[in-house]
Amino acid sequence: MEMEAVIGLEIHVELNCATKMFCDCPNRPGDEPNSNTCPICLWFPGAIPQFGRAALEKAALLCLGLNAELQPKSAFDQKVYYYPDLPKGYQLSQAHLPLSRGGWIEIADEQGKPKKLRIHHIHMEEDVAKLLHEMEGRTPISLVDFNRAGAPLVEIVTEPDFRSSYDAMEFLKALRAQVRYVGSSECSMENGTMRVDANISVRPKGTDQMNTKVEVKNMNSVRHVGDAIAHEITRQSACFQSGEAIILHTRLWDPEKKATLPMRAKFAGPCVPDPAVPVIELSAEWIAEMKKRLPEMPAARAARFSTQYGMTAEEATYLSAEPDVALYFETLIGEGIAPRTAMHWLTTQLMPALKEKKMELASCKVTPSRFAQLLSMLAQDEINANAAREVLTHLFDSDETPDRIVAARGFKQVSDPGALCSLIDKVLAEQPAALNDLKNGQAKAIGFLVGKVMQASGGKANPKMIKEMLAGKLDSYNQ
Fold it and tell me: DSSP letters of 177-197?
């Protein structure tokens, strides 16, 4: 019997507000443990939470960026449960009146066709504290760091529209890009600012039945989400085929074993309205103002790149996927660089170098202005492509301008016809077989001879002029 998966995601995104959701403590969970706390985020009895406007604005922009509809009224509830990272016994969340409902993200499915994946709702909530487990010594202990307690979160709850690990991974990539565009979060699973739980069940393909689901946690990369879902589909399908009952519970993903492991039974505590935080009422005028603050989103920018700059759909999608890359690209064009030149050097040279050096585009020394100067020198034949790549490596470590680096290291291109003619004649004299091929009209000899002339010039000759001059010799031999 052929099986299919029914998958829904719950995605926690930490908002990049300067302060926590209900107090003025810095929102910096990575600081020295328990250094950013107060009676409110330590959850002392009687401390009254004070909801911050910044968290509301960041959350609202995130919702709008995901095509969700902001609700005129939303409210916080006490989600009651006890765990050591939540000693007050409840978490402030929005179980009954979420900030937004609906929403969707469009991906390309495995056949390249558009597929719309729906969002059920998005709600705000406070983060819990962080447990640190010390396993060394005779008596293992667990410590609690309250720096993260009260950090502003949104939870994005999808519809069960996903049918494969591919769907989930593509959805997360698109979601991450769109949230970064609106500026509400960095959405880094590696750094914990985006956390994903997957709810997975299986059923016979072609049926509409909804079977018992299993929740999988502890995935810290998009790849791990895909691997965990794929493993769970296989595991549950085998259980279904053998008649083994699937029980509602939570599992953890173990990336070393590449398997999901049982964690605990699934428990849902009561949610009751919180009396301390007032109902949030959003006017139509305020919602309209927030919509005006939305930037050009990735899909719209990709479409514009295709029409305005002649990019292919694939090129435009890549350039528009991250806001920093898209801004860098258009800044290069604003500096006078041709779009295709900017695209080629950004995607084939600068981005791979950044990845190798583990650096971020926004903080590296190769600013758009310095990179544009380098590409301008290349376009004006002051340097060749090999020299440009060499200069680029120096731009990462030096504050000098590209023209100074070129002058100091002797990278300037040789474009003098007389000097090039002498080099060509020298190489032809040293390569009689290639010269004979050239005289016999074999055009492929030109490529070989260009390489030899470049070698003889120490990489400084103008390859375009060399090729033109050799082609001229070929024409003269053919006459």
Answer: HHHHHHTS----TTTTSEEEE
3-state class (DSSP) for residue 40 = coil
**CATH number of this structure's domain 417-478:** 1.10.10.410
Residue 282 to residue 403: CA distance in whole angstroms = 55
When pLDDT is averaged across residues 405-425 and rounded to a whole number, the result is 75
Nearest to 66 by CA among 284, 315, 299, 303: 299
pLDDT (tens digit per residue) in 337-351: 999 999 999 999 999
Strand pairing report for 214-217 and 249-254: parallel
Q: Are 466 and 450 in contact (CB under 8 A)?
A: yes
3-state SS assignment for residue 144: strand
DSSP secondary structure letters along 233-302: HHHHHHHHHHTPPPPPEEEEEETTTTEEEEEEE-----EEE-SSSPPEE--HHHHHHHHHT----HHHHH
pTM: 0.84
Over residues 67-101, the pLDDT tens digits come to 999 999 999 999 998 888 999 999 999 999 999 99
- 152-158/114-126 β-pairing: antiparallel
Contact 246, 210 (CB under 8 A): no
Dump pLDDT digits (tens) for 178-235: 999 999 999 999 889 999 999 999 999 888 888 899 999 989 899 999 999 999 999 9
- Give the amino acid at 316: A
Per DSSP, what are the bridge partners of residue 157? Answer: 10, 121
Residues 365-392: tens digit of each pLDDT: 999 999 999 999 999 888 888 889 999 9
The CA distance from 156 to 121, in Å, is 6
CA distance readout (Å), 459 to 54, 386, 391, 463, 471: 56, 7, 13, 9, 20
* Residue keyed to tokens 């935080």: 277
Q: Which two tokens stand for residue 50?
A: 């004070």
**Strand pairing partners for 141?**
134
Rg of the chain over Cα atoms, rounded to whole angstroms, equals: 30
SS3 82: coil
Domain coordinates in residue numbering, the chain: 3-284, 296-409, 417-478
